[in-house]
Amino acid sequence: MSMNWVEIHQVLQELNLEGAILQSVRQQVFRCFYFDFLRTEGPVTLLISLEPGRTRMHPVTQMPSGKAPILRWTQFVKAHLVGKRLLSVRQHGHERLVEFRFASPGGELALMVRLWSGAGNLFVVEQGIILEAAFRRPSSGEVSGGQWVLPSSSPTEKVFALRDLPGEGSYGERLAAFYGQGVDLDALRTRLAQAWERRLASWEQQKKRLEERIAQGERQIDYQAWGDLITSYAWQVTPGAKEIQVTDWRDDSLVILKLEPQLTPFENAQVWYKKARKVRDAAELARQELPQVESDIKACRLRLEQIIQAEERTLPELEKQSKEALKNSTPVVVTGRPGVEFTSGDFRILVGRNARESDELFRHWSKGSDWWMHTRDVPGGFVFLRGPRGKSIPLDVLLDAGTLAIWYSKAKAEQEADLYYTQAKYLRRLKNGQPGKVIPSQEKNLHVKVDPLRLRRLLKMD
Question: Roughly what angle, to the nearest 10 degrees, separates helices 265-309 and 220-232?
Answer without folding.
Answer: 180
